Model the fold of this input.
Amino acid sequence: MPDYLILANQLTPKLIAWRRDFHQHPELGFQEFRTAAIVAEHLQSLGLEVTTGVGETGVVGIIEGNGPGPVVLLRFDMDALPVTEATGLPWASQQPGLMHACGHDGHTAIGMGVAELLTQTRDQWPGAVKLLFQPAEEGLGGARATIRDGVLDNPAPDAAFALHLWNQFPLGKLVVQPGPLMAAADRFDIAITGRGGHGAVPEDTIDAVLAASEAVNMLHHIVSRNVSPHDAAVLSIGSLHAGDAFNVIAEEARMEGTLRTFDPAVRALLIRRMEEMLDGVTRAHGASYTLEIREDEYTPAVINDPEMAAIAREAALAILPETQIVQIRPIMVAEDMSEILNRVPGCYVLLGAEPEGGARGPHHNPRFDIHEDALPLAAAVMSQIAVAYLRRGT
Done:
């Protein structure tokens, strides 16, 4: 087996340069044109078969090994977030209002490094590696878009793996576990409609702001009073908008929020209780409501295949000490790698990338950052996992 950590460490200057370049030029989901072009050019320079425009802006590269064998898919996401950066770093975003605030710049650089490492060692493993540089992971359905475009065909992968840098874990801590890791996510939209009017004559109106305020309060009671404490669930209202003037009672209030669950029965309970709460509150005010659960943006839970998790863990032991490989309580964030894991057995892992000093913000924060020493380590881990899968039984 090649020593992928030594090989990856030799790539460190490249990995950092790629990551910082992507960080300076963030692109939102399905708009990763510059990022995808750089990725495609790099893969082509390695002599790989490359397909662009997969799921609109995704890139797929195929590395053929030494003889026939299984196919493993490695996925790396590329998109940024609509966040205004506040790190003050020399390589901070040059795009106003856009930022790589979740580490996808690092993931893209890691994928390019993995492509180089596996191409260098392709004579030492059988089968093929399919590299997916995925667009639009951040709630826009990028994984589904690539699946619709055939990323799981020709050749069809037998296993799939992905890695996320996690800056709230110490550098080098690797989470590898079977079963649930990340929650399913729903987005919902609520509109409450009353009757607008003059702020000085509230008796002639049906105040949508008041009804919405009571609805927010009632909705947040659902998890604490209707969901068993043995079940994991989150209901959060992320935005509430109503009115345009200080002396006008608003006719409509609009809310957006998210549900996070693992159990479909709990999800169904939350949606039913939301309907009942909204119906009761709006009836009491003489208002009306609509609730839309955005099924097109639903993200299933990340559930790791036990056999694939065991392969990933065993592979990681070649790089990290056993004390660095851990399991955690499942977390309520979501990840659309789940769309692939629902179709192909695989494992999603988290690698600690806490910045030096630990002073930066968490994921999706304007002060988010990662420890760049995690980049070669992640490239080595992903390469080791892929080759361990391909060489099992040989």
User: Anything to note?
Assistant: The CA atoms of residues 103 and 312 lie 21 Å apart. The chain has a mean pLDDT of 97.
